[in-house]
Amino acid sequence: MDPKTIACLLDSYPTPLYVFEERILRERLQYLRARLPEEVRLCFAVKANPFLGQFLVGSVDRFEICSPGEMYICEKQKLPAEQFVLSGLYKDEGSMRYAFEHGLCRGILTVESVHQFELLRRLAKEYTQPVRLLPRLTSGNQFGLTEEELLNILVQIRDDPSRQKLLTLAGIQFFSGTQKTSLKKHRRELELLDTLLDRIRAELAMEIPSLEYGPGFPVAYFDAESFDEDAYLEEFSSLLRQMRNHLPIVLELGRSIAASCGSLLTQVVDQKSNHSGNYAILDSGIHQLAYYGQFMAMKHPVFELWPLRQSARSDQDPEWNLCGALCTVNDLIVKKLPLPDLKIGDVLIFKNTGAYSMTEGISLFLSRDLPTVVWLKEDGTVRMLRCAEPTWTLNGGA
To answer: What CATH topology corresponds to 260-397?
Structure first.
């Protein structure tokens, strides 16, 4: 954001304030498309930022939806149901019935367990609606199916006796975690999937239509982190091309798409010093600023200080411990951060908050308001996505 835009936002909206920028989001998608194989499709994990789906229609191929609430959000934002991937470890029957009754099953439904498969098959038969299923292979945790369970479900889909052919296979899904910097891990996982595809062809005489893979691309959140993303994506693309089984690949991405487009603006509201150091109290805190990999506030996230200073920051500047507004000693955002001439009223602009920060924190703790959220368009105009919302009514005040 340029200085004029920052000044205008701070004049128009209270802090704390989330700003999601259209230009950065568009440039990020262009960057990923340019560095991944041309045939690769992208699926946006809505959980990373449920505000952004409405701005990604036409820019991504699928939307992964992991809860009933996310499904209702995507329906309200009028996202195309044909691009939904209704996912989630727990699919309750009530929300699945809603999906069938409101035409939200026209996309893909993941299968996380044998019990889920039976539920979806029963509802497809009851509503006489064909469904495209995406069984998930477990990576060794509570998610997904064992290889034997997955093969058994593939046989049932293949041999579906219903005349309507209610069950069809959309592909196989695999995801093992986020912030994966190890290309060796990608190599092992893609080899595991290649071996599974070989087995399916040999034992079941089936060809899998597509593979949805969650690569968990990393995001560099902190100053000290060094990450050559160009080289990383080039090597990852090479691994995809080296797979023995050439089939359509869909990459499920969340933070890699969304993180860079977001900033959190938070104001210094108090200052104090004691025998342990200097403390600046912010009107935000750990309930609204969550960086993956933050450890006891020791890492320094990427940020700007406003108003802009004449001279650059240096290690000779006074060190400040930045604390949030929560009444807990754990509400430490950054320790010992050198800042020049810090004053009450200054604003810190924390970068790369476009993924998870606005939903991942302990938002209801101490009943503080949820921050305002705005969408900054490329032409400089601003659209409010959410005004500051009180939470005290949810915590016993109704």
So the answer is: Lyase, Ornithine Decarboxylase; Chain A, domain 1 (2.40.37)
Residue 311 has pLDDT above 90, yes or no: no
HEC profile of 240-306: HHCCCCCCCEEEEECHHHHHHHEEEEEEEEEEEEECCEEEEEECCCCCCCCCCCCCCCCCCECEEEE
CATH superfamily, domain 36-253, is Alanine racemase (3.20.20.10)
Burial class (CB in 10 A: 0-12, 13-18, 19+), 354: buried
pLDDT digit string (tens) for 277-305? Answer: 999 999 999 999 989 888 778 889 999 99
Neighbours of 367 (CB within 10 A): 14
How many other C-beta atoms can be found within 10 angstroms of the C-beta atom of residue 168?
14
Taking the C-alpha atoms of residue 369 and residue 51, their distance in angstroms, rounded to an integer, is 18
User: If pLDDT is split at 50, 70 and 90, which confidence band does 117 have?
Assistant: very high
Average pLDDT over residues 63-85: 98
In this predicted model, which residue has the larger pLDDT, 311 or 112?
112
DSSP sequence for 130-148: -EEEEEEE--SSSSSB-HH
DSSP-derived 3-state class of residue 189: helix
**What tokens does 17 get?**
């304030």
Domain ranges of the chain: 36-253, 260-397
- The per-residue pLDDT for range 298-310, each reduced to its tens digit, is 889 999 999 998 7
Bond from prior residue into 371 cis (ω within 30 degrees of 0)? no
Q: Is 182 helix (H, G, I), strand (E, B) or coil?
A: coil
Cα–Cα distances in Å, from 137 out to 43, 82, 174, 329? 18, 23, 5, 41
Task: Note whether 253 and 259 are within 8 A (CB).
Answer: no
Tally of CB atoms within 10 A around 222: 16
Contacts of 355 (CB under 8 A, 6+ apart): 48, 49, 219, 254, 255, 257, 258, 259, 262
pTM given for the model: 0.95
Tell whether the model's pLDDT for residue 131 goes beyond 80. yes
Residue 224 tokens, joined: 């000290």
Q: What is the mean pLDDT of residues 325-333?
A: 93
What's the helix, strand, coil split of the chain in %, to 5?
35, 25, 40
CB atoms within 10 A of CB 135: 26
